[in-house]
Amino acid sequence: MVSFADRHIGITSSDQDRMLSALGASTGSATQEDGSSTQDALESLMRQAVPGSIYTDPSANEDSVIPVAASEAEALAELRALAACNTVNTPMIGLGYYGTITPSVIQRNVLENPSWYTAYTPYQPEISQGRLEALINFQTMVADLTGLSTANASMLDESTAVAEGMLLARRASRATTNVFVVDAGAFPQTKALLHTRAEALGIELLERDLAGGAELPAELFGVFVQYPAASGRIWDPSAVIEAAHLAGGLAIVAADLLALTLIASPGSLGADVAVGTTQRFGVPMGFGGPHAGYMAVRSGLERQLPGRLVGVSVDADGKPAYRLSLQTREQHIRREKATSNICTAQVLLAVMAAMYAVYHGPDGLRAIASGVAQRAALLRDWLVEAGVEVAHEAFFDTIEVRVPGRAAEIVGRAHDDAGILLRQVDADTIGISVDETTDITTLHRVAVLFGGQQERVFGLFGAGSTGALPEGLLRQDEYLTHPVFHVHRSETAMMRYLKCLADRDYALDRGMIPLGSCTMKLNAATEMAAITWPEFAGIHPFAPASDVGGYLQLIDQLEAWLAEVTGYDAVSLQPNAGSQGELAGLLAIRGYHLANGDEQRTVCLIPSSAHGTNAASAVLAGMKVVVVACDDLGNVDLDDLRAKIAANADELAALMITYPSTHGVYEQDVVEITSAVHEAGGQVYVDGANLNALLGFARFGDLGGDVSHLNLHKTFAIPHGGGGPGVGPVAAKAHLAPHLPSHPLAQSDVHAGGFTFAGGPVSAAPYGSAGILPISWAYVRMMGAAGLRDATAAAVLSANYIAERLRGHYPVLYTGENGRVAHECILDLRPLKEATGISVDDVAKRLIDFGFHAPTMSFPVAGTLMVEPTESEDLGEIERFIEAMIMIKAEADATAEGRWPADDNPLVNAPHTAVSLIAGEWTHPYTREEAAYPVHALIAGKYWPPVRRIDQAYGDRNLVCACPPVEAFA
């Protein structure tokens, strides 16, 4: 029977033999039926690439805690058993997480559609127009509802968005103080995360009961208000916002978007920044995520926004086209000058939330919100009738009631007898939240728990009722006026709109995405299957431990498996992006040094070749970045490293390195590097971005790593979703484990291996984006330790094959000591530019005409392409890419030889749209066929880009980040 690994790994044994032969690594003997000679040759290739000092023999996996690989059916059966250990009770806990109804047309055509979930970040905007339009819809939705001028393309979650808002206020405020005021009514998870982030940066947090009239301090750089408050209370914060402005600070408001369809927007109240989550716009709770957070700012703060921002520009024909705007804001580029380490978003979930608004429109959203408000008010009436004291008169969906000494008893009875989850605030107080899914029967059962009538006749709500909302804060202005929020009401129209957008995009379901450093591997359908099961999707992140036994088992197993394959002792799955995993790891190092009394250890050494987020994360962890040089081969310069260690010996906190390096090679001296840092009292952070080249052959913990983050959205098959979701667990040795992220509302303090973590939280939910952990669990379970090792070898073989085949056309910039690369190779296009005038951009855009997403451009070296085929691609697709690159080189040479003018040839005019080929007279010196069908095979299945090359500079000069009028496309 064919195994899952055989389905996942694209190159067959015979393909591998052919590729090894081309590399001169074949055994030369005929392949046996069991592929043994090919396996021997592949092992030989890996020994040439991976340094012997860190090489792990296959026999090391004999005592693996990872079970023998399961079949797809077996893995699904085990997931069903785990799901059965979860209990889906009625969630009325609130705190930013609510039951919601995902329209089936969105679940089927977005969440479960590989056209959406296998796409990557839109760095090639010409082939990302559908996704970018969806994100423009998201930004428009957020900006309209918050009443602010510009919204970004999503944040990681609400609590991290609040933290980013705090940092924005610090750099944009004219105040010189480090004081930041936090509303006492904020969500508890947000308060905890703010403490984590502020402590590392020397920010002083002052908590004040702002709704209760507490005065602001004389000096502050910002104030944060929860609107409505965690208690559900709605109050007018405009006076507090004005006072903050008078003190020289900025005002950040965390607002519930559904409530904003009925109550005054933060912008109308004077807020500078609005943040929050879009979870209740059709995105399942999923035990905490992934969900798209949001951030919007007033005019004048656009260039301070963290994260990604989609804007409108024009293409070569002057037609509107979407792109990422202000890309110099990307933290990859700004490195130690970065103001945020966020380098991703929650695109897939932002698309779902945006399409929820597109499908329902303003009237539908208002009706949903009105229903929630009316039901909450009805529950209040029934509870008051039963003699229960309700804390606040004005609220939207959440009420707090006082039951002296009885809170625990009532909450327990609600869970055990009625299957309803209420929130115990303290011994005397209970919080109750109503959402879109709450029905009248549930309200009656809640009322009965508090002594309400056992029997009741239910009537109809009054039309247009706004429940218990305060009259003075009712919303007066319009929102979602753009036609896109009005024309897709039928399922037919919605389905066709989503299909239209998907057709404008390029994702893995079309072909290879050879992005170096991004690992665009297959996200198998079986891995994805469980995430929409109610037992995983319908769980509140703060549900009691008795309801989440299946999740806790799955998390414990995945933590143990990840610890084994990395050589670490403990793993926290809380970070919901690689950037947050980096930050968590560095905060663990910081906590370790502080616990040892080494407060002076604040210097972080980072090689010049490192991922840009490394430097940004170090700054946000309160560290000072010192850059270490690299030699001509792309390796860390040992002499410079030793000099920097000596110069900073007493202050050395850590070294951050990526392994294999960002240059795509296994550095031979890695053990010597890590030993030098340890001898000086520092810790070693190994960036796990390139773990796909290491699994089964070496382990971070064995080569000297103390802590690493892992990218589950790369190595462990969670899909990138067009630029998110991601999961970035942090793994560490035992001495750092106590400093890994904890959470005040976690169901369990104990992690795999018996470790207890005590570091501050780095995401809003205890286990981060737990809703997609079944994907990585299924990947490891079905691959097994042997399959993971085979996948690594296949990825390294494919990269070396591409490097060898293209070496005569494009120089391969870096190789290891034996001339081998790791799982990716860097092709140097600078000589091509010098000889022909054709740039790396021209090559990237011409690849679109060949039906490819371009490799990573100009990272980590300007003027290069970094190619990573992954283990998923078959030899036919790899050969197709090689053929395209060879033909592009020939076209560049032909241009240099005078066949075509330098300013009018297939490369500088690429990509070519269908309209550009048929509209008007053809005046170019090359034929239409040469433009559209450079290889004959494209005739059978051509991907047509919807726009021509986009003018990047125009979009930055003319910043438009909301839906353009329909007339613009006429």
TrEMBL record:
Pfam families referenced in this protein's UniProt entry, alphabetically: GcvP2_C, GDC-P
EC code: 1.4.4.2
Domain of life, per lineage: Bacteria
Protein's UniProt keywords contain Oxidoreductase: yes
SUPFAM superfamilies: PLP-dependent transferases (SSF53383)
First-tier enzyme category under EC: oxidoreductase
Keyword set includes Magnesium: no
Reactions mediated catalytically: N(6)-[(R)-lipoyl]-L-lysyl-[glycine-cleavage complex H protein] + glycine + H(+) = N(6)-[(R)-S(8)-aminomethyldihydrolipoyl]-L-lysyl-[glycine-cleavage complex H protein] + CO2
GO molecular function, one term: glycine dehydrogenase (decarboxylating) activity
Cofactor: pyridoxal 5'-phosphate
Domain (Glycine cleavage system P-protein N-terminal): residue spans on this chain: 6-446, 483-742
Domain (Glycine dehydrogenase C-terminal) ranges: 791-912
Modified residues (N6-(pyridoxal phosphate)lysine): K714
Keywords: Oxidoreductase, Pyridoxal phosphate
CDD domains referenced in this protein's UniProt entry, alphabetically: GDC-P
Function in brief: The glycine cleavage system catalyzes the degradation of glycine. The P protein binds the alpha-amino group of glycine through its pyridoxal phosphate cofactor; CO(2) is released and the remaining methylamine moiety is then transferred to the lipoamide cofactor of the H protein.
SUBUNIT field: The glycine cleavage system is composed of four proteins: P, T, L and H.
Family that this chain belongs to: Belongs to the GcvP family.
Protein name listed in UniProt: Glycine dehydrogenase (decarboxylating)
Protein source organism: Microbacterium istanbulense
